[in-house]
Amino acid sequence: MKRNKLLLGLVGWYGLLWTVLAIAPYDREDWLLENILAIAAVITLAVTYRWFQFSTPSYVLITAFLSLHAIGAHYTYAEVPFGFWLQHTLGLSRNPFDRVVHFAYGLLLVYPLRELLIQLAGVGNFWSYFLPVSGMLAQSGFFEVVEAIIAQIVSPELGAAYLGTQGDEWDAQNDMIAAFSGAVLSMTVVLLSARWNQGKDRLGRGRRGRPPSDTGP
Protein backbone atom coordinates (compact mmCIF):
# COMPACT_ATOMS: atom_id res chain seq x y z
CA MET A 1 0.00 0.00 0.00
CA LYS A 2 2.82 2.41 0.89
CA ARG A 3 4.59 1.60 -2.40
CA ASN A 4 1.43 2.17 -4.42
CA LYS A 5 0.84 5.51 -2.72
CA LEU A 6 4.42 6.57 -3.40
CA LEU A 7 4.20 5.54 -7.06
CA LEU A 8 0.92 7.42 -7.45
CA GLY A 9 2.57 10.42 -5.81
CA LEU A 10 5.49 10.24 -8.25
CA VAL A 11 3.10 10.02 -11.20
CA GLY A 12 1.07 12.92 -9.84
CA TRP A 13 4.17 15.03 -9.24
CA TYR A 14 5.56 14.50 -12.73
CA GLY A 15 2.16 14.94 -14.37
CA LEU A 16 1.59 18.23 -12.56
CA LEU A 17 5.12 19.51 -13.24
CA TRP A 18 4.93 18.52 -16.89
CA THR A 19 1.54 20.19 -17.31
CA VAL A 20 2.66 23.45 -15.69
CA LEU A 21 5.85 23.54 -17.76
CA ALA A 22 3.87 22.77 -20.93
CA ILE A 23 2.17 26.15 -20.56
CA ALA A 24 3.92 28.84 -22.60
CA PRO A 25 7.35 27.22 -22.97
CA TYR A 26 10.25 29.34 -24.19
CA ASP A 27 10.07 27.75 -27.65
CA ARG A 28 7.04 25.59 -28.43
CA GLU A 29 8.64 23.71 -31.33
CA ASP A 30 11.77 22.94 -29.33
CA TRP A 31 9.58 21.85 -26.41
CA LEU A 32 7.80 19.38 -28.68
CA LEU A 33 11.10 17.96 -29.89
CA GLU A 34 12.47 17.65 -26.37
CA ASN A 35 9.41 15.75 -25.20
CA ILE A 36 9.34 13.07 -27.89
CA LEU A 37 11.76 10.74 -26.11
CA ALA A 38 10.52 11.67 -22.62
CA ILE A 39 6.90 10.82 -23.41
CA ALA A 40 8.01 7.63 -25.17
CA ALA A 41 9.88 6.61 -22.00
CA VAL A 42 6.86 7.31 -19.76
CA ILE A 43 4.55 5.34 -22.05
CA THR A 44 7.01 2.43 -22.10
CA LEU A 45 7.19 2.37 -18.30
CA ALA A 46 3.39 2.40 -18.05
CA VAL A 47 2.82 -0.29 -20.69
CA THR A 48 5.45 -2.67 -19.32
CA TYR A 49 4.54 -2.16 -15.65
CA ARG A 50 2.36 -5.26 -15.67
CA TRP A 51 5.30 -7.48 -16.71
CA PHE A 52 8.27 -5.74 -15.14
CA GLN A 53 8.40 -3.46 -12.12
CA PHE A 54 11.41 -1.52 -10.93
CA SER A 55 12.12 -1.05 -7.26
CA THR A 56 10.78 2.03 -5.49
CA PRO A 57 14.23 3.74 -5.41
CA SER A 58 14.51 3.25 -9.18
CA TYR A 59 11.14 4.91 -9.81
CA VAL A 60 12.19 7.82 -7.58
CA LEU A 61 15.44 8.22 -9.55
CA ILE A 62 13.64 8.00 -12.90
CA THR A 63 11.11 10.64 -11.80
CA ALA A 64 13.92 12.94 -10.62
CA PHE A 65 15.60 12.76 -14.02
CA LEU A 66 12.35 13.27 -15.94
CA SER A 67 11.65 16.33 -13.77
CA LEU A 68 15.02 17.86 -14.64
CA HIS A 69 14.38 17.11 -18.30
CA ALA A 70 10.95 18.76 -18.13
CA ILE A 71 12.58 21.95 -16.81
CA GLY A 72 15.16 21.89 -19.58
CA ALA A 73 12.46 21.34 -22.20
CA HIS A 74 10.41 24.30 -20.93
CA TYR A 75 13.24 26.83 -21.15
CA THR A 76 15.41 25.06 -23.74
CA TYR A 77 18.57 23.83 -22.08
CA ALA A 78 20.61 26.85 -23.09
CA GLU A 79 18.17 29.28 -21.44
CA VAL A 80 17.44 27.72 -18.04
CA PRO A 81 17.75 30.48 -15.36
CA PHE A 82 19.48 28.20 -12.85
CA GLY A 83 22.07 27.45 -15.52
CA PHE A 84 22.76 31.16 -15.97
CA TRP A 85 23.19 31.48 -12.20
CA LEU A 86 25.74 28.66 -12.28
CA GLN A 87 27.47 30.26 -15.24
CA HIS A 88 27.90 33.60 -13.48
CA THR A 89 28.72 32.08 -10.10
CA LEU A 90 31.38 29.72 -11.44
CA GLY A 91 32.66 32.03 -14.16
CA LEU A 92 31.81 29.63 -16.98
CA SER A 93 31.70 30.48 -20.68
CA ARG A 94 28.29 28.86 -21.28
CA ASN A 95 25.07 27.87 -19.56
CA PRO A 96 25.96 24.46 -18.05
CA PHE A 97 22.45 23.19 -17.31
CA ASP A 98 22.60 20.68 -20.16
CA ARG A 99 25.83 19.29 -18.70
CA VAL A 100 24.15 19.02 -15.30
CA VAL A 101 21.26 17.04 -16.78
CA HIS A 102 23.57 14.74 -18.76
CA PHE A 103 25.52 14.11 -15.56
CA ALA A 104 22.20 13.42 -13.82
CA TYR A 105 21.28 11.05 -16.67
CA GLY A 106 24.20 8.82 -15.77
CA LEU A 107 23.95 9.40 -12.03
CA LEU A 108 20.22 8.71 -11.69
CA LEU A 109 19.43 6.19 -14.42
CA VAL A 110 22.37 3.80 -14.13
CA TYR A 111 20.80 2.28 -10.99
CA PRO A 112 17.53 1.33 -12.74
CA LEU A 113 19.58 -0.03 -15.64
CA ARG A 114 21.59 -2.19 -13.22
CA GLU A 115 18.35 -3.46 -11.72
CA LEU A 116 17.06 -4.31 -15.18
CA LEU A 117 20.22 -6.22 -16.08
CA ILE A 118 20.24 -8.14 -12.80
CA GLN A 119 16.59 -9.18 -13.00
CA LEU A 120 16.27 -9.91 -16.72
CA ALA A 121 19.79 -10.92 -17.71
CA GLY A 122 20.95 -12.39 -14.41
CA VAL A 123 24.23 -10.47 -14.33
CA GLY A 124 26.09 -10.36 -11.04
CA ASN A 125 29.32 -9.54 -9.26
CA PHE A 126 31.72 -7.36 -11.31
CA TRP A 127 29.45 -7.33 -14.37
CA SER A 128 26.55 -5.88 -12.40
CA TYR A 129 28.63 -2.71 -11.99
CA PHE A 130 30.58 -2.65 -15.24
CA LEU A 131 27.74 -3.32 -17.68
CA PRO A 132 25.39 -0.60 -16.37
CA VAL A 133 28.15 2.01 -16.67
CA SER A 134 29.14 0.90 -20.17
CA GLY A 135 25.46 0.72 -21.05
CA MET A 136 24.86 4.32 -19.98
CA LEU A 137 27.83 5.46 -22.07
CA ALA A 138 26.48 3.56 -25.08
CA GLN A 139 22.99 4.96 -24.53
CA SER A 140 24.35 8.47 -24.23
CA GLY A 141 26.15 8.18 -27.56
CA PHE A 142 23.11 6.56 -29.19
CA PHE A 143 20.76 9.31 -28.03
CA GLU A 144 23.14 12.01 -29.25
CA VAL A 145 22.86 10.46 -32.72
CA VAL A 146 19.08 10.01 -32.43
CA GLU A 147 18.59 13.61 -31.28
CA ALA A 148 20.63 14.90 -34.22
CA ILE A 149 18.57 12.81 -36.67
CA ILE A 150 15.27 13.93 -35.12
CA ALA A 151 16.35 17.57 -35.27
CA GLN A 152 17.23 17.27 -38.95
CA ILE A 153 14.02 15.44 -39.87
CA VAL A 154 11.50 17.42 -37.83
CA SER A 155 12.97 20.92 -37.77
CA PRO A 156 16.53 21.50 -39.05
CA GLU A 157 16.43 25.21 -38.15
CA LEU A 158 15.90 24.27 -34.48
CA GLY A 159 18.91 21.99 -34.41
CA ALA A 160 21.17 24.25 -32.32
CA ALA A 161 18.43 25.05 -29.78
CA TYR A 162 17.28 21.45 -29.52
CA LEU A 163 20.78 19.99 -29.18
CA GLY A 164 21.91 22.82 -26.89
CA THR A 165 25.39 22.98 -28.40
CA GLN A 166 25.87 26.69 -27.60
CA GLY A 167 28.68 26.85 -30.11
CA ASP A 168 30.61 23.91 -28.64
CA GLU A 169 31.78 21.64 -31.47
CA TRP A 170 32.56 18.92 -28.92
CA ASP A 171 29.20 19.23 -27.20
CA ALA A 172 28.11 15.64 -27.89
CA GLN A 173 31.37 14.21 -26.60
CA ASN A 174 31.30 16.39 -23.49
CA ASP A 175 27.71 15.35 -22.81
CA MET A 176 28.76 11.70 -23.05
CA ILE A 177 31.63 12.30 -20.63
CA ALA A 178 29.22 13.96 -18.18
CA ALA A 179 26.81 11.00 -18.33
CA PHE A 180 29.68 8.52 -17.98
CA SER A 181 31.04 10.39 -14.95
CA GLY A 182 27.65 10.38 -13.27
CA ALA A 183 27.24 6.65 -13.90
CA VAL A 184 30.69 5.86 -12.51
CA LEU A 185 30.01 7.91 -9.38
CA SER A 186 26.63 6.24 -8.82
CA MET A 187 27.97 2.69 -9.25
CA THR A 188 30.94 3.48 -7.01
CA VAL A 189 28.57 4.53 -4.24
CA VAL A 190 26.43 1.41 -4.77
CA LEU A 191 29.52 -0.82 -4.71
CA LEU A 192 30.91 0.76 -1.55
CA SER A 193 27.50 0.55 0.11
CA ALA A 194 27.22 -3.15 -0.79
CA ARG A 195 30.72 -3.86 0.56
CA TRP A 196 29.89 -1.96 3.76
CA ASN A 197 26.69 -3.93 4.28
CA GLN A 198 28.48 -7.22 3.60
CA GLY A 199 31.12 -6.30 6.17
CA LYS A 200 28.46 -5.49 8.76
CA ASP A 201 26.68 -8.78 8.05
CA ARG A 202 29.88 -10.78 8.46
CA LEU A 203 30.69 -8.94 11.66
CA GLY A 204 27.20 -9.57 13.01
CA ARG A 205 27.34 -13.28 12.18
CA GLY A 206 30.77 -13.51 13.80
CA ARG A 207 29.52 -11.95 17.01
CA ARG A 208 26.45 -14.19 17.13
CA GLY A 209 28.59 -17.29 16.66
CA ARG A 210 31.24 -16.31 19.22
CA PRO A 211 31.01 -18.31 22.49
CA PRO A 212 30.45 -16.26 25.66
CA SER A 213 33.67 -15.20 27.38
CA ASP A 214 34.60 -16.80 30.70
CA THR A 215 34.36 -14.01 33.26
CA GLY A 216 34.74 -16.31 36.34
CA PRO A 217 37.88 -16.85 38.38
If helices are DSSP runs of H or I spanning 4 or more residues, what is the number of helices? 8
- What letter string, H or E per element, gives the SSE order? HHHHHHHH
Helix content: over 70%
Instruction: Kindly report the oligomeric state of this protein.
Output: single chain
Strand content: under 5%
Main sheet properties:
none
Shape estimate: globular
Mean pLDDT across residues: 86
Overall structural class, as computed from helix and strand content, comes to mainly alpha
- Radius of gyration from the alpha-carbon trace, in angstroms: 21 Å
Could you tell me the number of beta strands? Answer: 0
- Tell me the distance between the termini: 56 Å
Low-confidence stretches: 213-217
Q: Which structural traits does this protein have?
A:
single chain; 217 residues; mainly alpha; 8 helices; 77% helix
Provide an overview of this structure.
The protein has 217 residues and is an all-alpha fold. It contains eight helices and no strands. It starts with a helix and ends in an 8-residue tail after the last helix. The model is unreliable at 213-217 (pLDDT under 50).
